[in-house]
């Protein structure tokens, strides 16, 4: 990391102020880490959903990254079931563990009104019993923290990973959020809504400093770190994923393509070449297997080895 | 409307193809209009939520307009309760009538698991009974159609208003969606994800043709048409709202400011000067009155007069 990169991420935090409820959220995060450290529990930070980049200070318009939070919310469930405490740092209103299974259906269609009671209708009983039981079982191991903008996200990412230092190699970072590469610095944003009477609009966006650099070296030097690389062009997937690993020196880059991300990923690490692949078969897909179950199983094994090599005391 | 404007909206539809499920949705819309026309029922088209503008053809990034769909989803409920059939043309995953009251709460926290049955817990029974009853009562008067992009929205808006022609002055259009003013024509979009290694990003956005012009004159010449003007700068609110009414010759422009939109709006029409105002008092706000209940009450009365003056046969 050269000196200029080092300055860029610091400048970003100087120029963009903390999100609301920041101190309360950081306190909650610290409490989870502290308790887990005492009990030697593993903690996974799962980031999920897209970040927004405001185009105006009184924000009416913003640039968004496509992400429903499918990967993150599904993975959070599998980390919980694999015994992890989970900090789920997600875009507000993106998919969440367990409730994701009900999206697109109305609860009012599942409820039956009886004179004395209101109940879940017969044909939804099995599904809702299973989901509610899981939710209620894992709820106390799940801390949900939400963000909207790029700046909110980066503030919370920095604070969370710093608080997770107390966990040493028990910490796993699973960076599945779709983070914007470009933004408009606050000082260059118009104050009011851009008027369309001004004719066509030209926007000039700056590069977001690469936060993986200070994250790996400064904020979370002992954590097991997994990042994602989403591409649309298959020919770039492996090279872009390798490039990212070589640049930041973390542990795994999961490469995926926009159109096949639910059935195929590659796992690029420092030792395996060609990279390990996870691909769902047609029969797995038909029977409802989610690729995140296999990704988490694979990572848990890698994390176990990592922990065995890095634990102290 | 001069000839060049006329061309621009036509060109937009030539350059942007129909959304998926378009023909099925238009069929559903036509059936609702046909039935209502026979029974002489009023129909309100309520548009709600923001439109997206893709920056890439394989869409990873897009520009979005801030809108949770609060105004539209609340208004749809009040139109239903005022006796309208409602076509709710809304951004996918934005707020919806009735379920909007449960946002931010997990249904799994409301469910109680009994050995033989799963029920709604005691302290949520009253609220969920009321909401479920309303939902089940009005469900058959509510057609939900969703969109994501600007182009999806405009295709559906054109088709819906054209199908509503059969209703004559029984049709009310309540255009509360936050529609983008700018877009990138498909021909100017890169095919793949924009690479951040290319350095800072310059975007050049074109003006979206003003669809209210053909809507008022060609698609829905007999409907009662209400549009919204959202501003952040108070000094521009009245003038911008009037300007819009004078330009398009429709019936009401509801002006509102980003920061006070839940307590204050102005209703600009062709005859009243200064414009009518609706403002919630502190006590109304405290007791849970929503400004949309008063807006809809006001518009229903205006629509009744309009219908009395315009009905034929």
Distance between the amino and carboxyl termini of chain A? 31 Å
Strand order of the largest sheet of chain A: 7-4-1-8-11-12-13-14
Number of helices of chain A: 9
Structural class of chain A, by secondary structure, is alpha/beta
Order of helices and strands of chain A: HHEEEHEEEHEHEEEHEHEEEHH
Largest interface: A-B, 57 and 57 residues
Biggest β-sheet description of chain A = 8 strands, mixed
Helix content of chain A: 25-40%
Query: Mean pLDDT of chain A, rounded to whole units?
Result: 92
Q: What's the quaternary structure here?
A: homodimer
Pfam families (chains A, B): DFP
Protein name (chains A, B): DNA/pantothenate metabolism flavoprotein C-terminal domain-containing protein
Domain DNA/pantothenate metabolism flavoprotein C-terminal (chains A, B): 42-96, 172-260
Family (chains A, B): Belongs to the PPC synthetase family.
């Amino acid at each position: 990391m050269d000196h200029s990169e080092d300055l860029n991420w610091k400048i970003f935090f100087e120029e963009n102020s903390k999100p609301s409820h920041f101190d309360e959220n950081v306190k909650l995060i610290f409490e989870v880490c502290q308790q887990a450290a005492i009990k030697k529990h593993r903690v996974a930070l799962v980031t999920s959903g897209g970040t927004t980049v405001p185009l105006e200070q009184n924000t009416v318009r913003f640039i968004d990254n496509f992400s429903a939070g499918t990967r993150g919310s599904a993975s959070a469930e599998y980390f919980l079931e694999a015994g992890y405490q989970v900090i789920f740092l997600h875009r507000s209103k993106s998919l969440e563990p367990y409730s994701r299974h009900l999206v697109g259906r109305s609860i009012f269609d599942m409820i039956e009104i009886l004179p004395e009671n209101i109940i879940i209708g017969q044909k939804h009983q099995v599904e809702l019993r299973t989901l509610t039981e899981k939710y209620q079982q894992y709820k106390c191991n799940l801390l949900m923290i939400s963000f909207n903008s790029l700046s909110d996200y980066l503030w919370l990412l920095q604070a969370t990973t710093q608080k997770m230092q107390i966990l040493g190699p028990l910490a796993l970072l699973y960076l599945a959020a779709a983070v914007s590469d470009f933004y408009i610095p606050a000082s260059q944003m118009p104050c009011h809504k851009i008027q369309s009477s001004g004719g066509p609009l030209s926007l000039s966006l700056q590069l977001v400093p690469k936060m993986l650099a200070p994250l790996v070296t400064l904020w979370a030097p002992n954590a097991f770190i997994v990042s994602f690389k989403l591409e649309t062009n298959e020919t770039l997937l492996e090279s872009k994923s390798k490039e990212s690993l070589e640049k930041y020196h973390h542990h795994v880059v999961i490469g995926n393509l926009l159109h096949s991300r639910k059935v195929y990923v590659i796992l690029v690490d420092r030792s395996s070449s060609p990279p390990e692949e996870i691909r769902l078969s047609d029969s797995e897909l038909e029977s409802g297997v989610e690729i995140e179950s296999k990704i988490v199983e694979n990572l848990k094994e890698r994390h176990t080895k990592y922990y065995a090599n890095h634990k102290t005391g």
